[in-house]
Amino acid sequence: MCISKSDFIAKLYISLKEANETLYWLRLLQRTQFINNRQFESVNNDCEELKRMLVSITKKMTDKGDRPNQK
Fold first, then answer.
1. Given CA atoms 6, 7, 12, 16 in this order, what sign does their dihedral have?
2. What is the pLDDT of residues 24-58, one digit of tens each?
3. Exposed/middle/buried for 70, CB within 10 Å: 0-12, 13-18, 19+?
4. Does residue 20 have a pLDDT over 80?
5. Half-sphere exposure in the Cβ direction for 22 (13 Å, CA)
6. According to the model, what pLDDT value does residue 69 have?
7. DSSP per-residue letters across the chain
8. Among residues 1, 13, 2, which one has the least CA distance to residue 67?
9. Torsion over CA of 9, 59, 24 and 38, rounded to 10 degrees?
C-alpha cells in the first residue's frame, strides 16, 4: 500500500504530537515517583531522540513544498 507524500507528512505531525504527550506522561510518572530517575532518563532520552528524528524528517519533507493543508 502506498500513501501520498502529504499523508506521510500528516502522520509525521501526529507522531510528533504523540511524542510530546509521551514526554508529558513521563514527567508526571517521575514527579509522582512511579518511576525512578534512572528509568525516566533512559526513556526520556529515547523519546527526545525520536522527536529530533521526526522533526528532521518533517523539515526535509516540508522544505520541498509539500506542507499539509497548503492552499
1. positive
2. 999 999 999 999 999 999 999 999 999 999 999 99
3. exposed
4. yes
5. 16
6. 54
7. ----HHHHHHHHHHHHHHHHHHHHHHHHHHHTTSS-HHHHHHHHHHHHHHHHHHHHHHHHHHTTT--TT--
8. 13
9. 120
Is the pLDDT confidence value at 66 over 60? no
Cell of 53: 528524528
**Do 55 and 16 touch, CB atoms closer than 8 A?**
yes
The answer to whether the pTM exceeds 0.85 is no
Distance CA 51, CA 1 (A): 26
Residue 3 burial (C-beta neighbours within 10 Å; 0-12, 13-18, 19+): exposed
| pLDDT above 80 for 65 | no
